[in-house]
Amino acid sequence: MKFKVIVACAIIICIPLAGAFLQFKIGQYCDTVLEYSLEGNEESFSQARDFWLSHQNILTSLITHEEVDNVTLALERACAAEGEELEESQREIAGLLEIVRNFDHPDIRSIF
């Protein structure tokens, strides 16, 4: 019985720690994609898209597929953009990444 209580307590502690770690990693991924997109050329948008797609499994663990797909589509549009469209794409990607970064972010208000 004592072993089961210890295991239950360990699981209860590990769940929020794992969630916090995943949110930290998602923030790092958003920062990396944002850095690539701020370079503003076709190659950097392509690298950002490839990076984003390679981490899609982790991203969808805490974020809806719709939010991840919105960023993916914005990155694909940015790869084909030219001139003023590049700046607009950069702003769009930055906004979408901010949504992803803060998606379902726990705070005191959401806990209570």
Largest sheet: none
Which structural class matches the secondary elements? mainly alpha
Low-confidence runs of at least 5 consecutive residues = none
Instruction: Give, in order, the helices and strands.
Output: HHHHHH
Q: pLDDT average, as an integer?
A: 85
- State Rg: 18 Å
Shape verdict = elongated
Straight-line distance between termini: 31 Å
Tally of discrete structural domains:
1
Q: How many strand units?
A: 0
Task: Provide the helix percentage.
Answer: over 70%
Strand content: under 5%
Count of helix runs: 6
Describe this structure in words.
There is one protein chain. This protein has 6 helices and no strands. With about 110 residues, it is mostly helical. The mean pLDDT is about 85. It is elongated, with a radius of gyration of 18 Å. Helix 2 runs antiparallel to helix 4 and helix 4 (about 65-80) runs antiparallel to helix 5 (about 85-100). It has one domain (about 25-105).
In short:
This protein has helices spanning 2-39, 42-54, 56-62, 65-80, 84-102, 108-111. The model has no long low-confidence stretch (mean pLDDT 85).
Descriptive labels:
elongated, 112 residues, 6 helices, single chain, 0% strand, mainly alpha
Task: Set down the secondary structure blueprint.
Blueprint: H1 2-39, H2 42-54, H3 56-62, H4 65-80, H5 84-102, H6 108-111
Helix pairs in contact: 1-2, 1-3, 1-5, 2-4, 4-5
